[in-house]
Each structure stands twice: as structure tokens, then as C-alpha cells.
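Hey, quick one: can you model this chain's 3D structure?
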Amino acid sequence: MTMAPERSVPINTIEITEKAADKVRKFAADKGMEKFGLKVAVKGGGCSGLTYVLDIVEGAEEDDKVIVHHGVEVYVPKKAFVFLAGTVLDFSDGLNGKGFEFSNPNAAKTCGCGTSFSV
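Sure thing. Here's the predicted structure for all 119 residues.
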């Protein structure tokens, strides 16, 4: 029996899972937003050096790369893209925690809570 190869995201994009896209749509609906997208960025800080930033916004800014997965637009500032390329964003509602989770191939080190990383 052969096993399916591990799925990887092309390094030139960012992917959100269907579960994460559903949560983004729900959060946008809760805010009464008809036109929306998910802003994914990084900023300095956190215990590992860089912190993930997520926000539901009305549209992309001029320097954002726009990616669409499962019907949800994802906006990534070009300066942040180098740190996030190849990342998969998922949503977990299991017993160990609830929230968005990043699987970032660029992260050399991550903190225990998963909200910051270093390259």
C-alpha cells in the first residue's frame, strides 16, 4: 500500500483551509460586513521575534498581494509575504485550544502558544 505524499503549499502563495475560510465568513457576517477579506501580516514582537496579525477588513491595500481560497480573499502586505509564503492557515476548535493556527515553513522557531515565530 502506498501512502499519499504529504501535501505542501507552493512557496509562492498562502493557503487557508476550508474550515478557516468558513470562520472568516462567519466573523465577517457577525460584523455585518458584506465585502470583506482576511488581512494576514506580521509585525515585530512576541516571544520569538515576529507576531502574526489577522484582521477582517473591507478590502486590500495598494501594496497587498491578493490570494483567493475557498471563496475568501486573503490580503498579504508585500513586505510580510517573504515571511509567510508557503503558510497554511487553519482553524482549530479542539480541546487544546480554539483559534487560527499557522503552519509556516519559514519559521525556524515558534513560541509555545503559536502566535510568534522567528526566521
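One thing worth noting: Strands lie at 15-16, 37-45, 49-57, 64-69, 72-77, 88-92, 99-103, 109-110, 116-118.
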